[in-house]
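Progress report, Aim 2. The chain analyzed during this reporting quarter is listed below.
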Amino acid sequence: MRGASDHLSIGERVAFYRARRGLTQAVLANLVGRSEDWLSKIERGEREVRRLDVLTELAAALRVELADLLGQPVLLEDDHEHDDVPAIRDALMAPARLSRVLFGVEDDGARLPDVRQVWRLTEGAWDHYQRGDVGRTVQLLPRLIQAAQSIETRSADGLDGWAVSSRIHHLATTTLTKIGESDLSWIAAERAMKAADQADDPLVLASAARAGTHALLAVGRYDDAIQLGQTARDWLSRQLRQLDPAALSVQGMLDLRMATAASRRNDRATTTQLLASARAAAEQLGVDANHWQTSFGPTNVALHELSAALDLGDISYVTEHGPQIDSSPLPTVRQVAHQIDLARAFSYAGQDANAVSSLLTAERKSPQLIHHNPVVREIVRTIHRRTPASNHRHSPVRELAERCRAIQ
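Predicted structure tokens for the chain:
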């Protein structure tokens, strides 16, 4: 069940899976090149795992997914208590998606969806996502995915149809990744790229590859994310010699996605190189734009530089420089991600009041992006655990923990 046992901390999940695998602390610690004392403190919650590459190594040693240690998604409920993720799953896993030969469409008189109308609805759903209204996006996606399937099967030669299908599945990938549904996001990413292959549009394919990097990052496959991003970036460069703003934005975002992957595998040199490439593209673009829903520009590059510094362990740099960056020119979803990064850094630095303040700021912008986020729940749970019991009742951190379902 989604959200089951989500009250456990990362350390408690490590201990749970270690016991399930029949491993001692000494054996697991040796597998990841750490001391038994280090692992013992992790499992008891006396020490935090601050680097995702270390969590990825632990997950590999325990033979589980990275998401199993980070925490599973809870029910995504908006003000109307909508949770349509199961409907997205049904749309993505419909048997007709498995074979166009076996499930060939007969002329049953059904009306083919108007590609232009579906495109407009898709762009509207992207707008909802970028404004942080993830619940509304999730509600729209099942019908959009079904429309994409109909367009693909009934007008296989229509290039615009393939392009809109790719954009729909790209949106599904990004949304599902954001809410922790990593397995579904990979299915959506694969569909996005298959449709993009048929679209005969370099930007459609490169943008779909960006969706693929999202899905790969979500499951800790950092080397694969870099390989996909670099391949797509090189291919786009060969296809479009005269870079227009849209192509420049997509290339820049591929650089940023790869920089994120490099920082999460603790590769400082590659991270620095990729961030410099993205910064050069942003300077050439000159503005904070949103071509192809990339939010690419100087501000987004600055936010990714902070996020990379956080993954690389440069906590003091993030706490000092992070609050000085004005993220307001960017869509809400990026503003919220920035506040979450600040909260992580403040929590690692023991500045709990600042961490809670950052999360409350983000919650006011988009409650949904905060309440179901496994990283947020871990931050809040950690702060709640080290807050004196006398301060718990009606405290902001306890109330936030309850809203995020971080505590029982």
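The chain has 21 helices and no strands. The two ends are 17 Å apart (CA to CA). These observations will guide the mutagenesis work planned for the next reporting period.
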